[in-house]
Amino acid sequence: IPILYTQSFCDRGTTPDSNLTITKVKIEKDSSGNNEEWKLLDDVTVTIKVKNIGDDDIDDIFVEIGLFDSTGDDMTTNLVFSNADEDEIDLGSLSENEDEEVTFEFKVPADFDTGSYRLAVKAYEDGNQDVQCVDESADFEGDEVLFEEIKVERESDKNKYVIVDDIQIQAEATCGETVSGSFTVFNIGRGTQEQTLVRMLVPGLSISRDF
User: Fold this and answer.
1) Of 69, 90, 140, 189, which has the fewest CB atoms closer than 10 Å, so is most exposed?
2) Taking the model in full, what pTM does it have?
């Protein structure tokens, strides 16, 4: 018997009679350069607009993103999300011809593997993905409508090889009180960085300390 293999982020491929459509996918990052080339510790936002082009309301709509490596494994859970729903957002319901945007916000962690990835998105009706699911967008670059090619790279600017992040410090203190805090130093550049110095400055209190 003939067997058809379908490449799709939806469980059973984009449903032909789906009334959901993805009208916008916008990728932005906080560093300069191509938005499809991410650097370690970049803050990235992915904004997706979904529209109901049918005549009936669609309830319980979810929007999901995936980031797949060269072997097809989904690495999305390794990203550090700032939105509470992480890689899946409950959009709610859409009436006839209604559309709505959702935004995913995340950081590329310092220990994320560099290389090529594919960013995919989908919108579907919860519990009814066999009937209402779409994972295609005309906003994806090139000839593909199912994913966006993403490259994750190390920092190329030598002045930015060493980054201080995950800063946690006591926000309030009284005179004479000991203040505690912590931070993490990352090498997001290329090669080993020798003789690294981190300086903490609190100008208002005339505090300067080297680590």
Assistant:
1) 90
2) 0.79
